């Protein structure tokens, strides 16, 4: 059995947080595998009851995730999640750069991995986890989350620097990194340092993953040819898109979509 609850954050938080997503799994003796593909926004995830399990690619071992995990931006399909038992998980999904704007913490050291939350955010997030675990109402949990993030919000408005990245994130006019860097008045090196600090990824990687996510969302939302998806996502051709899918999703487009179900976090 699976139950999903979603909510938007308080309006003051919407420039930084995309959504709250709570998933309750009652797997019995079954288990499910969820792929983790490339994504830009960071996440903060709270676990209640049984944890997710993360298999190692170097051996046959599996490791449970932490009760509170900060999940950085991901530039390739490196891991997958195994869901078994009774799992209750609540994910805070940030917009790109939203985590940095919220806490003022550089994103680059957190990229490509999940990091135990207490070590990143301190005892406040552990206390929040306890408060969330003491109630069962999703609405009450949303209230706690909104109060916590409004209290910790470092930058209420998106900095001009972050706004300048929109042509790359939205693939407008096939903007190049050099063009966007010139518009900010920064050198290429300064621009890359700021990108790593705020987004956790280089400008080129940001642009590539943004285009991949657009193609993935187009493929998930409509029945159309992959040639049309490639065109609408601003790929040069279909083979260019297929190469990105192999890097970012672990396989060609049709195979990648077949592994993604409606409740997977990549959908939100």
TrEMBL record:
Gene3D superfamilies reported for this sequence: Homeodomain-like
Record has Transcription regulation as a keyword: yes
Residue span(s) of domain HTH araC/xylS-type: 143-259
GO molecular-function terms, A-Z: DNA-binding transcription factor activity; sequence-specific DNA binding
Classification via Pfam families: DUF6597 (PF20240), HTH_18 (PF12833)
Highest taxon, organism lineage: Bacteria
Keywords assigned by UniProt, alphabetized: DNA-binding, Transcription, Transcription regulation
Name this protein carries in UniProt: Transcriptional regulator, AraC family
Native organism taxonomy: Bacteria, Pseudomonadati, Acidobacteriota, Terriglobia, Terriglobales
């Amino acid at each position: 059995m699976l139950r999903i609850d979603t909510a938007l954050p308080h309006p003051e938080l919407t420039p930084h947080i995309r959504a709250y997503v709570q998933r309750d799994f009652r797997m019995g003796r079954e288990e499910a595998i969820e792929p983790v593909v490339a994504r830009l926004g960071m996440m903060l995830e709270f676990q209640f009851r049984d944890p997710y399990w993360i298999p190692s690619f170097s051996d046959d071992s599996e490791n449970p995730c932490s009760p509170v995990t900060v999940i950085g931006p991901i530039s390739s399909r490196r891991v997958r999640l195994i869901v078994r038992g009774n799992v209750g998980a609540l994910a805070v999904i940030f917009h790109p750069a939203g985590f940095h704007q919220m806490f003022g913490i550089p994103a680059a050291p957190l990229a490509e991995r999940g990091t135990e939350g207490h070590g990143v955010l301190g005892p406040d997030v552990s206390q929040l986890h306890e408060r969330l675990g003491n109630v069962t109402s999703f609405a009450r949990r949303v209230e706690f989350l909104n109060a916590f993030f409004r209290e910790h919000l470092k930058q209420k408005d998106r900095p001009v620097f972050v706004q300048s990245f929109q042509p790359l994130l939205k693939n407008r006019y096939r903007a190049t990194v050099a063009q966007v860097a010139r518009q900010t008045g920064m050198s290429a090196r300064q621009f890359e340092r700021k990108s790593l600090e705020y987004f956790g990824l280089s400008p080129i990687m940001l642009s590539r993953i943004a285009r991949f996510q657009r193609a993935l969302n187009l493929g998930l939302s409509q029945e159309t040819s992959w040639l049309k998806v490639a065109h609408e996502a601003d790929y040069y051709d279909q083979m260019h898109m297929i190469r990105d899918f192999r890097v970012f999703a672990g396989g060609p487009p049709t195979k990648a979509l077949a592994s993604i179900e409606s409740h997977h976090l990549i959908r939100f």
